[in-house]
Automatic annotation (TrEMBL):
Family assignment from sequence similarity: In the C-terminal section; belongs to the peptidase M41 family.
Signal peptide: none
Domain AAA+ ATPase: 49-186
Entry's localization field: Membrane
This protein's name: ATP-dependent zinc metalloprotease FtsH
């Protein structure tokens, strides 16, 4: 991505109803939406503006999707970055990218900054495997966050599945002081996620999503979306115009086989 950050324009079609499960996360993020819609109301009431939200959960559970949905509902742009965009071996580059990101956000406010794989940027300082350069970059981030009063209309969001690796300083008040858990979906959540994705696919009426939800314990939202996508490919190969239950089962077997080969599942 280099040193520049892309500001994705408001995607108003994308809302919280595109996110299945993650009920607590959706509820927790409702006032971030309200704040971004009218920061002046928060200010007039003397209410503290949400500044930093840390989304914590396993890969593929919809953390990026949630950030984009918050932006979509609020009708604001989102700047998406990855923690590794800031890990540069050259002196000062990581820190200057952090400053460029903050500058870009101020220009685009109200907006959201979303940093994926945040542990690459916000990792604990003073650990033997952390370079001084990485620490400078993290310090630059803390300085930028502290330099925003909150009423600029910039909300920082970051996602990680390794919150145990984060430096405690990133959680201090005025920084990422809100933690939102985004766990793997439950059975009911999986059904909700399957319904969202199935609505966009030509499913045969014989497909019982409830059964599919029961057959997919441990699947993340991304894996469920992938399952339906693989099933669509099976249907296309068969020259069919609809996805059947058998296509989904075949796709599931294929995914399972891939996992066994990759050593993820031990039989
Ligand atoms: P990572 O930690 O690996 O970056 P993530 O938690 O940010 O993953 P997303 O990138 O948001 O996960 O998920 C990838 C895709 O999977 C989404 O664009 C969406 O299509 C689907 N998906 C994931 N979770 C959900 C969900 N809860 N509801 C609906 N779709 C989901």
């Amino acid at each position: 991505r280099g040193g520049t950050f892309v500001v994705a324009p408001p995607a108003r079609h994308l809302t919280m109803s595109d996110v299945g499960g993650a009920r607590e996360a959706r509820a927790d993020l409702a006032d971030v939406v309200a704040f971004l819609r009218s920061p002046e109301k928060f200010e007039a009431m003397g209410a503290r503006c949400p500044k930093g939200v840390l989304l914590v959960g396993p890969p593929g559970t919809g953390k990026t999707l949630l950030a984009r949905a918050v932006a979509g509902e609020a009708g604001v742009p989102v700047i998406i970055a990855g923690g590794s965009d800031f890990t540069e071996m050259y002196v000062g580059v990581g820190a200057s990218r952090v400053r460029a990101l903050a500058r870009r956000a101020r220009e685009s406010a109200p907006c959201i900054i979303f940093i994926d794989e945040f542990e690459a940027l916000g990792g604990r300082r003073g650990r033997p495997n952390r370079s001084g350069e990485e620490e400078n970059t993290l310090n630059a981030l803390l300085v930028e966050m502290d330099g925003m009063a909150g009423n600029e209309g910039v909300v920082w969001m970051a996602a990680t599945n390794r919150d145990d690796m984060l430096d405690p300083a990133v959680r201090r008040p005025g920084r990422f002081d809100r933690v939102v858990e985004v766990p793997l979906p439950t059975l009911a959540d999986r059904l909700e996620i399957l319904r969202i994705h199935a609505a966009r696919a030509p499913l045969s009426p014989n497909v019982d999503l409830d059964v599919i939800a029961r057959l997919t314990p441990g699947y993340s939202g991304a894996e469920l979306a992938n399952l339906l996508n693989e099933a669509a490919l099976v249907a296309v190969h068969a020259g069919a115009s609809m996805i059947t239950g058998a296509d989904i089962e075949q796709a599931r077997d294929k995914i399972l086989l891939g996992r066994i080969r990759a050593g993820v599942v031990i039989t």
